[in-house]
Amino acid sequence: MSGLKPLIAGNWKMHGRRANLEEIPALIRETGAALSRVEVVVCPPAPYIEAARAHIGGAAIAVGGQDCSPVSADAARTGEVSAGMLRDAGASFVIVGHSERRSLLGETDDLVRQKANAANAAGLAPIVCVGETQAQRADGKAAEVVAAQVAASTPDDPAGLVVAYEPVWAIGGDRTPTAEEIAEIHGVVRAELSRRYGKAGEAVRILYGGSVNAKNAKEILAIDGVDGALVGRACLKAADFSAIVLAAPGAR
Ligand code: PEP
Fold first, then answer.
1. Residue 166 designated active-site
2. Which residues span the domain enclosing 27?
3. Which residues face 129 on adjacent strands?
4. Distance CA 208, CA 230 (A)
């Protein structure tokens, strides 16, 4: 870990219903005082953002969206949700460029950068996802691919920016890179952020994402250059997610 405050973000993806928001009070109980030492963000589906905020009450947990429109102003964009609307509903973060959206919906680096800029304009902190495919890693191109994604998908202004390194092949399965592989790519991301933003790039947190769970979190979160985690499946149950929060360096 660097000297930055650890950030653990949970991405519900398209899972759950209103009843699942009951996991939030359980998360608050199980993490207790760690919430002052570790920043925690829950990213439920957009229709539940406002209700998630109500379940959080005064606890130090932030809410994030899972995507936003690249268009900031109100517009004829059926089905789109603007960053300003997410903010109005109680979000303070938004995930952009998740690999599922890049691969299933064809989102490009340029579109992701526009979304990150729209997030900034609305006062939301963008969590920009990057990561190589299995084929790109097998070709020895992981570092090159990730550096190019960081260069082209991050916003013009680094204020509040978070980058999540999520190797596509590690998401949703049971494989994770080795500690050395994670440290190497986090170093690549950090170098690219410094190139792009100068000194301001040092304040950007770099999360690891891809099959983080209650068992491997402590080891992953202790890797040099890892400032937190973006968690998919293991954020859905408070027992698992709280174990990950409590595994962050300095949490206890
Ligand atoms: C994700 O999709 O962002 C993710 C990290 O998923 P999982 O933790 O389930 O691999």
1. yes
2. 7-247
3. 164
4. 6
Nearest of 220, 188, 193, 192 to residue 204 by alpha carbon: 193
In a domain, 115, yes or no: yes
Note the pTM of the prediction, 2 decimals: 0.97
- Ligand 1 atom 3 nearest Cα: 232
Q: How many domains does the chain have?
A: 1
Q: Can you tell me the distance from the alpha carbon of 147 to that of 186, in angstroms, rounded to the nearest whole number? A: 10
What distance in angstroms lies between residue 209's CA and the mean position of ligand 1's atoms? 6
pLDDT in tens, 152-187: 999 999 999 999 999 999 999 999 999 999 999 999
- Single-letter residue type at 119: A
pLDDT at residue number 177: 97
Domain harbouring 150, CATH code: 3.20.20.70
- Whether 209 lines ligand 1, by a CB cut-off of 6 Å, is yes
Residue with CA closest to ligand 1 atom 8: 232
Supply 71's token pair.
């268009």
